[in-house]
Amino acid sequence: MRVVIAEDLALLRDGLIRLLGAFGFEVVEAVDNGPSLLRALTGHRPDVAVVDVRLPPTFTDEGLRAALEARERVPGLPVLVLSQHVEQLYARELLSDSSGGIGYLLKDRVSDVAQFVDAVRRVAAGGTALDPDVVAQLLTRHAREEPLQRLTPREREVLGLMAEGRSNAAIAGRLFVTEKAISKHTNSIFGKLGLPPSEDDNRRVLAVLAYLGS
Amino acid sequence: MSGRLVDRLGERARRALVNLVRGVLQIVLAFTVNLPLFILAVLSIAFIPLGFGVVMVPGVLQAVRAVANQQRAWAAEWSGVEIPVPYREEPPGGLGPFRRLGLLLTDPATWRDLLWTLLNIPAGLVLGALAGGLTLYGLEGVFVAPVVATVTEYGWGPFWPLEDYGVAGYAGTVVLGAALTVVSLPLGGVFLKAHAVFTQSLLAPTKGALTARVRQLAESRSETVDASAAELRRIERDLHDGAQARLVALSMNIGLAEEMMKHDPETARQLLAEARASSGMALTELRDLVRGIHPPVLAERGLDGAVRALALTLPLPVDVRIDLPGRADAPVESAAYFAVAEILANVVKHSGARRAWLQIEHAGGRLLMIVGDDGTGGAEPARGGGMRGIERRLAAFDGTMAVTSPPGGPTVVTMELPCALSSPKTLPSSGTG
Q1: Within this chain, do residues B267 and B325 fall inside the same structural domain, yes or no?
Q2: Residue of B247, B254, B279, B297 to mutate for A, most A C-beta atoms under 10 A
Q3: What sequence ranges are listed for the domain Signal transduction histidine kinase subgroup 3 dimerisation and phosphoacceptor (chain B) (predicted)?
């Protein structure tokens, strides 16, 4: 799997290259600033990009902007954004084109290597990987709102894990129940949120977006 | 060439006409506003012993200040004479009627205002009339006097030598009138300037006011220095007791795991897992610390983005309207952000509100921030605590805060910070920003 890395701190960049290399990814380019990131993304069209939010030259949200612009030029280009802090504002911006293939994680999550690599693979496959911090904020903030109140506590738990981007099998493993039980829960969640079955849309992403957008 | 001459004459005539109008305005102000206002002020002060003066004086003095401020604005606009406003600031949080009266009557600027109100009655008349009067008189000498004098005895004869000298008299009148018109054209501005200087001598801050201002600045500076020193101590303590201690434990665990690797890989694995958990906690602590010093999103997106991001994390809906054409200096931005954050935190903690709204804009060199909620009201800035902290933060930049929060609500907090905006903000190329 071909991957582009954007990280300005050499120590972290080398670490990411080594880490992803060890898990069989092919790092086609590792850049350290916003403009070269945009060039690398549109030039290589990698299977997935791992991008730091803050990059030179402005050291603001250069990486995020480059990722958004690249996705505008190459729709659906999978991007996993890493940050020293997570903001709902940025999560919304990343998810706003609702085409999937988006991840937004705290840099700390890299330390759990297996989970991190799993998140990169999920994003590359067109799924989502939202940081548990963002999801927790979303669920507390919207707990008072109408549609969410109709969910049972168990369904809310399932929605939280779904928003992080986990599959039914993974959620079932986490909650120590069968996959079938989870699929019953997800169908009930889709029903309560008014998301009809459809072949084109990723209802899991839409369910999360329903909360981001409200 | 003659065209340019006509243009220049036209421009001069236009300026003379403007000065004439301004002079008339001064006269009107002196007689229709200054005169009654002065009488009213004297009367209301005299009524203080009778009681209702207590209520009247603040209102009348407010009107006097409004007129004086208008005159200050005119002096700056018409003659380029800048006159700073000298009034003492009302302490935040509002005053009782007697304390307000005391503050007004002990402010030297109040008495200088009144003196100006009195003296401007003749000064406004004379300097206002001179401004255009000479030009008008010159024009009258050219166009009106000679014509009128041929049909009737002209009342202003002594000023224009018409009858006594026959034809020479008429010719002389026209020539002198024309000369006076030309000479007086630029004089209008001079008289207006003279009036502005007269105004400045009474309405500008005195040395006492400047001393008071210096004292106020020294106070707010020492408060700021104290506050930032306390903040640094807090950060040092947090680092020392938190992240630093955790990192020591972390490297200890890793060292131990290294030793254990050969004999007891299972314990080594456990130690490493512990080390990872502890590094995660250290990172969380550092992140919270950084957020407390300067939120990263503030550095990345400025006040606009940071406040929007903040509003998203609150447990109640916040209607955010922000109109900022650029970014303020980092320290001002930071003060503004923490002030808004503190107010919103109060809304969440104390108000019992179901909704809140927030408006930020920049106008007239001031950053205006208004936060409102539909809660139970009764917020009391004088009680100290968070609100006092915000006041101190804002005072360091000459900013102010006003709270209206009647029991039963709603609460509206208005904050102002004088500042300039620079470098237009850049938005992400796509997204819902």
Answers
A1: no
A2: B297
A3: 231-298
